[in-house]
Structure prediction request, 346 residues.
Amino acid sequence: MSESPSLQSFIAGLPKAELHVHHVGSASPRIVSELAARHPDSKVPADLEKLTEFFTFKDFAHFIQVYLSVVDLIRTPEDVRLLTFEVARDMARQNVRYAELTITPFSSTRRGIDERAFMDAIEDARKAAESEFGTVLRWCFDIPGEAGLESAEETVRLATDDALRPEGLVSFGLGGPEIGVPRPQFKPYFDRAVAAGLHSVPHAGETTGPETVWDALRDLRAERIGHGTTSAQDPKLLAHLAEHGIPLEVCPTSNIATRAVRTLDEHPLKQFVDAGVTVTINSDDPPMFATDLNTEYAVAARLLGLDERGVADLAKNAVRASFLDDAGKDRIATEIDAYTESWPTT
Prediction:
């Protein structure tokens, strides 16, 4: 069963918030092509047709390899500013009112971008995007787990140094591959970030089992879980997530593209909802997975059997689970309600 044209239209106009979406991973083919042309020594093709083939992943490890090759295209503060502003433009086109964009500053500063210039670039883009599009951006600085503890130290330093920490920073995360990268080793860095007032939002349980989610909860003090796909394998974990109101940031198409889940029909989204777990719908690395947030809401509507009001409730989950201030949450929730009430019933 596919979603109706009416539901597609409803989703397209629905005010939304997004909580799990990556900075570099949101680069549209147009922007990736432009950056690749700027940096012809890169492995990334500048030709738009070849980019489609380039973004076809064999497995999660291959996805990380491709992702890092795109990261290598971000070499100057001007590249950073362009990417950030254009990502906000794409979000605004989908009526995204608020987004927490995951940024990996270590990937840029280790390539020689001055850390102060990097912070200025993302902040300039954030303010310009809010002024021009009305889309509010906040940052999550994440550790690239595959880069080891050196990257953890650098990321937490950039996130907690009062002279560098950007105004839009709200949370601290952990990304990259999970296999061979145990969560507990990052505890001291998350402790420092939390002590500095940041929220904890690590990836966990995407390509490893539910024990990785437990590790994120126990050792990293996770307030939300990125993906958490394998949580469905552990009823006690689902009960814990539901009881303590810890949301899962679910990215259905991403899970298929990276082979974390075999097919959409096997996706555990409905199991999460049936267990009483709060879920938010997200796009992760949308152009890389040939998706966007509107498409992810349509997928979720099909998997959960939702009508327009059900989709609106799902959208409000993301608003409530966000780290936006209460006035901002109320503003977007009210806008969602007004939009839903004005939608013609059949």
The beta strands are 16-22, 96-103, 136-144, 169-175, 199-200, 203-204, 225-227, 248-250, 279-281. The chain has a mean pLDDT of 94.
